[in-house]
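Field reference: sequence -> structure
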Amino acid sequence: MGKLKVRARLAIVMATALTVAAVAGGVATPTKATAAPPVATGSGGIAPDHGKSAGPTSGAEPVAYKNFLLKGGYVSAGVGLRNRGAGNISLGGIPSGAKVKAAYLYWSVLGATAEPLSYRKGSFAGTGITGTKVGSGASACWPSTTTGYAYRAEVTTKVKGNGNYSLAGFASGVRDGRDPFATAEVPPLTEGASLVVVFEKSTYPETRVVIKNGYTMVQSAPGASTWMSFGFSASNPVGAVKTTFIGGDGQSNATEPPSLVNGIPIAAADWDGTDGPLPRYSAGNLWDTDTVNLVNVVKPGHTGATVRVQGGSDCLAWVAQVLSIGRNGNLDTDGDKLKDGWEANGYDANNDGIVDVNLPAMGASVVHKDLFVEMDYMGAQTTCPCYLPQTADLNRIVAVFAGAPQAKQPRRQGRHPAAPGRRCSPWGGLQPGRRQPGPLRRRPEPGRGPVRRDQGQELLPPARQDLLLHDLGARLRRWFEQR
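Structure field:
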């Protein structure tokens, strides 16, 4: 880096990590009946409210089924089965070297008040299964049906890892894949199915995995809610948290208030019938397995999370909820000198609840060594371009770190959003950075002594100084090589 000739005045900010991963940070009218317009959104919080609601619901909110405390986590995937009764679940995300601890298949059927045995039947990965009924209630607003049912089957011995898992023989009035929003209903109506897999891996952080299941038909706000207990108080910083919403009858041409976790809207839980297969039906596939990382939703000291699902003009059938949380966010699982809690939720320098360095937005991972390089450009101008670097200059910086004497990690490319007035082509390796007030010397000058760290550090906001190294030129490479 000492030989790097940069046409711009620059400084570099680097997170204190070890190995290189340079990153940034017209629809057919539905045949189903619709509910009344939604009312005001409900509340969340950390205290359990166990499904109490003021609006129309039927059945019961998901209740506790299993919880695990293990080094590992969980993955999930689903598929819509309406008017097919068969399909394939494509499962991914189980890390190499992990062992499957448990696997469960969930599905839901809309049909008659009298429950035939066929609703519980199907095949998974070529083997017949019979599910356990976990709940029932009113049908999700399809006039030809009266009752909705939810089922679970343990399929641990059939799940060996990532891959495609076939489903067949589930109750369905028709099996030709006709669009349910453009044709008459022929019950029974199997909505879809989701696979939840819990895995173990010795190099992963200790994690609580909570699984709850049931059947709740929701058609208004505040809807229904369930309390996901951790069994411990969340650490400071909080470990990685994620959750999965599983259920049926969401469609893209109808709306509902957002689902909530601790009162915070979760946009990724869209309830639009976004599970496969592709192409989807005209208003979605009527089944959702929506997983979202909960960044800064759980706070230190919380002992659980309240998850709420709300209905609107779109009636929903909530079948299961899964949540995982790392037990100790103070650990550095991947050994990159960044705490798990920082990588999962961002770095809060003074515990004021405001994230000062948004590491998850930059692509940080709890189980992958991360190195972040930020290019800041100098200038006194109030508008840019200031002294923006050229693409060739940025590529030289990446080459320096790529050639550093460290064990190689799979490279993960970052994001580089386009900036107004940028004088170089868009490039994906460095975070854009911030304009500094300058001027700042970029190398030692005759008779003025060596460049000192504080000459660059003084431009770094105090809230970032404990996490980031702000330095110039050859000193940065020497710092990296010493580690």
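Note: The radius of gyration is 26 Å.
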